[in-house]
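Give me the 3D structure for Transcriptional regulator, LacI family.
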Amino acid sequence: MKKGRVTIKDIARELKIAPSTVSRALNDHPAIKKETKDAVKALAEALDYQPNLLALNLLQKKSNTIGVIVPEITGHFFSAIITGIQDVIVNSEYNIMICLSNESYEEELTIVKRLSKIQIDGVLVAPSSETKNFDHFRRLQKSGIPVVVFDRDCPGLEADKVLVDDYFGAFQAVEYLIGTGCKNIAHLGGPLNLSTTEQRLQGYLDALEKNKVPINSDYIVHVPGFSHKDAVKATKKLLELQERPDAIFAYNDKIAISTMHVAKKMGLQIPDEISVIGFDDEPHSSFITPSLSTVWQPVYSMGMLSARILLSHLKNQNVILDFRKEVFKPELVIRASSKEN
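Predicted structure for Transcriptional regulator, LacI family (341 residues):
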């Protein structure tokens, strides 16, 4: 036998039968005799024959692959979501292809085009922080490819969505800070395009308004990206104000940790002189000093549910299912970076 990948033609040549007979034997076709089936299967196993799934998928016009588009995977948040997705998909007939947009709309567009060309069966996506237009997702849907949006909403896009109640989480965090006696509470927000940024900002504003705490526009600073450098610059802008904040509610833990770094370098005591609360509950948030108060999100469950919803569409392709919008409730986790209530 030749070296390299064994094909149906190799088995046919060895057994002196037609390749079509080998193919039907491997697929238990009723027209093929039992002796022929047994001989073909025995030789296929001996030669470690592996079917060419790519060719099969082209014939069936499907790839048995699900695309997962995320902005990044270096942090715990999206890697935990992907783990949840994989733990569901592994028990199905599908594989997953992980694609990184790197928070870029242009890269996201390119990814969607490439996934369409390889006949992807479905897409799970958390849009980039630059994405304002969702027509590329609509084009997938028009092609019969189901799309499930998770974590970051796509306003106006009719699709299945698995989100977290960011408003509720932010409201709880800020109201807690007010309850500890903080009066000058600042907010370090995320990139302006994101639905999560908008919802967390609104929760912050409504908590202040409900508790009759004056809203100071100088206390609201948006971090344009998620880098330590961006967060440090935004934090300095707040802490160098003449009337310095006595608490900061940050868009996420990454920004909150950068905030604590700046506060420490300026000689401020946390939480005695400034309290800090983040959002996400990254694993390392409980190990820094002082440990970070934050808002926990069920990210693993978000990934699992997103995958299950997509699989339900793939298993019922001839049935029109209503779009689902599932919203998880986050939980406030109080640690040492904020005062006791």
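The chain has three domains: 8-51, 62-164+299-329, 166-297. Let me know if you want a second pass.
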